[in-house]
Amino acid sequence: MNDTVDKLVIFLAKRDGIDKLVKTFQYVSKLVHWHVETTHPDIAQRAKQWEVASGLSRKAFRSGRFLTGFNALRRNPGSTLTFRFLAVLANAGEMVYFFFDHFLWLSRIGVIDAGLARRMSFISAFGEAFGYVFFIISDFIIMKEGLEAQRRISLQLKAGDTSKEKSMEMEQKVRQIRADRVMRLMAVAANVADLIIALADIEPNPFCNHAVILGISGLVSAWAGWYRNWPS
């Protein structure tokens, strides 16, 4: 119990941890609003206010986050030319998303012209969707390479022509590949969910803009991010 509490404290001390918690509030309240809109209008109104407040607070809390893209490229530009290219495109899209999200937030709270909200929302969502496409492609390529490496190691282990110490190292490598694949699957789930939310802003349509689809997508993104950021 104490270990769980300690991990929760560490998780909530991170900016991403707080963001995932508030994102959960935001999309749970969206689903509650949809569910009780016709039967309990007073509760629906409160849920809507909670959703709006959560969304605005997340935007405020993400101030300056567009700079993390520069840091990501500086620290890990990619091992090959292909991955460097994908990393530049993915992080560039994410930087556009977070940068214009500042102006969307300011227009929503009335600091700048409220009429800019729709334009800022479109640019921000377009950058978000653009970046997530390349993040997803990168993760699938890395998972494919990991599966191939795991297959090669498994064949060597089955052959039985390695020392005990070498076999233990190879088994540890397989565990690392599997753990990395789980994390990348969580990242893909979150990015696909956020891509659906972004498409709802870019090109409103009955599927992406349905409250249930948006609510589930938001929760998938939040909980996948929660899993990835939870202290090991």
Automatic annotation (TrEMBL):
Membrane topology listed for this record: Multi-pass membrane protein
Localisation per UniProt entry: Peroxisome membrane
Protein's GO biological process: peroxisome fission; regulation of peroxisome size
Keyword line: Membrane, Peroxisome, Peroxisome biogenesis, Transmembrane, Transmembrane helix
KW Hydrolase (keyword) present: no
Entries under Pfam families matching the protein: PEX11
Membrane-spanning parts: 81-100, 120-142, 182-200, 212-230
Family per similarity comment: Belongs to the peroxin-11 family.
Protein name: Peroxisomal membrane protein 11B
Upper taxonomic lineage: Eukaryota, Viridiplantae, Streptophyta, Embryophyta, Tracheophyta
